[in-house]
Structure formats: C-alpha cells, structure tokens
C-alpha cells in the first residue's frame, strides 16, 4: 500500500497528521505532508477524508490481500 500526497495541492496545514490515529508516528509535515512511516498505518483513510485540499490518496495493494472491499 502507499499514501500519495499531491504536492501541488498540499498546503502543509497538518490536519492529516492531527486526524490520523498514529499521526505522530506516520506523518511528517514540512511545508508539504509526507507519510514517512507506513508501518503504523492501518488504512482507515481518515487522513484522506479530512484533508481540506483532497490531496491524499490511500492506495491499497491489490492481489496481495484478498479482502471484500469492492
Ligand atoms: S491535510 Fe492535506 S493539505 Fe493539509 S498537510 Fe495534510 S495533505 Fe497537506
Ligand atoms: S490511513 Fe489512517 S492510519 Fe493511515 S495515515 Fe491515514 S489516518 Fe493514518
């Protein structure tokens, strides 16, 4: 999986980090947001939902995992 932040849209507001249950471990806000430690991410997508710029895409691995999410 990966979390992609659109650098053109991101304003560095830090809402994603605040909203994320593991924000302090995962997110690094330094002008632009970067999800640096996805080991702690559980794919809840709260960050993407809270981003006012819709800059975050949470992308699940396909094939790797067979879950009922379609
Ligand atoms: S919430 Fe969105 S705009 Fe704000 S820092 Fe995070 S990715 Fe950037
Ligand atoms: S998907 Fe959830 S756990 Fe992962 S970075 Fe976003 S808010 Fe945090």
UniProtKB/TrEMBL annotation:
Short name of any one Pfam family annotated for the protein: Fer4
Q: Its domain of life?
A: Archaea
4Fe-4S ferredoxin-type domain location is: 1-30, 32-61
Could you give a GO molecular-function term held by this entry? Answer: oxidoreductase activity
Q: Which SUPFAM superfamilies match?
A: 4Fe-4S ferredoxins (SSF54862)
List the protein's name: 4Fe-4S binding protein
In its UniProt entry, the species of origin is given as Methanobacterium spitsbergense
